[in-house]
Amino acid sequence: MALFQHPARITRRILASQIMMTTSCQASTRHIHTSAAQTAASELLKKVKGQKFVRKQLLDGNQLQKLSLTLGRRSEFCTGEPPDGTYLPYGHHLVYFTPSQFESELGADGSDTTFNSPAPFTRRMWAGGEMLWNPQVQLRIGDRVEETTEILDAKAKKSRDGSEMVLVDVEKIFASPRGVALTDRRSWIFRQPLPAPPTGSIAPVITIPTTKSHIQDDTDLKAGYTMRNLVWSPVALFQFSALTFNAHMIHFNESWTRQVEGHPNVVVHGPLNLINLMNYWRDVHSRDGAIKAKSIAYRALSPLYAEEEYTIGTEAVEEGNGETIRYRLVVKRGEVVCMRGEVVGVRPK
């Protein structure tokens, strides 16, 4: 027997159906309108999605020693080249597997373009990422290591000011002869280049550095943990650029940095910030290596500059019920938060 349906209910269903069709058409129309950032992200994925790029390198002690000299860590590897078998400290792999491009292949700002987003989104910044260490397999000096790089994703984003940008997620896996030791996932943001001054109009900036790099530890009375104060000189930043074969001019060319990029001084490298963050954790929380780092998740929030003092501190330590401990770390310039990181440590069994 057929059920009676009230005309009002039928009308509501028809209206609902029409609204759904209209909404679907509007969504389809919005989807058809593709932004420049969406196009660039799509082109990058079509080009490299699913591909794996493999490089091999010997982890030599000379590179590790030069990093320790740059960092000013007098008690660590500074008196001579560390012997084969020396464990590579957390984050120190960032000075190996450096860019391998001819000068003619670099971007206009000197940056590596190997995994760049297509034009016009070519101005790269380190946004954040995570690292996962295998406690049973550590990288050592003398290891022949294989690095496998893959682009995981690329998507269009908008910055706080509404401008378009492309976010690219990259994964690097480092395998030693004993197995996979580290998975390093990085997020890079690509923005459109700033308007360049006319050729030859960039006046040279000549300043005499008045500050030497230094690191000093104090007690953070509020948090109850050691707080580290750091200052990097332009000389130390140039050394780090040379060590990592990084020609990005924002790190050493003061004229370009001030007049083209609009920064007040040369910029501290993202990888250098991350190495310092992990060195702080090792010195303050690892208890002479008794607690191993399992992972770090971090996010860069604001640039740091040469000759400006900033701090690395601990916001909280969360003791878990199992083997893990979480350490919430923060990098600040005055009251400005420049980077946040959460390290997961593993207790000894």
TrEMBL record:
GO terms for cellular component: mitochondrion. InterPro entries: HotDog_dom_sf, Mitochondrial_HTD2. GO terms for molecular function: (3R)-hydroxyacyl-[acyl-carrier-protein] dehydratase activity. It comes from the Eukaryota. This is Podospora anserina S mat+ genomic DNA chromosome 1, supercontig 4.
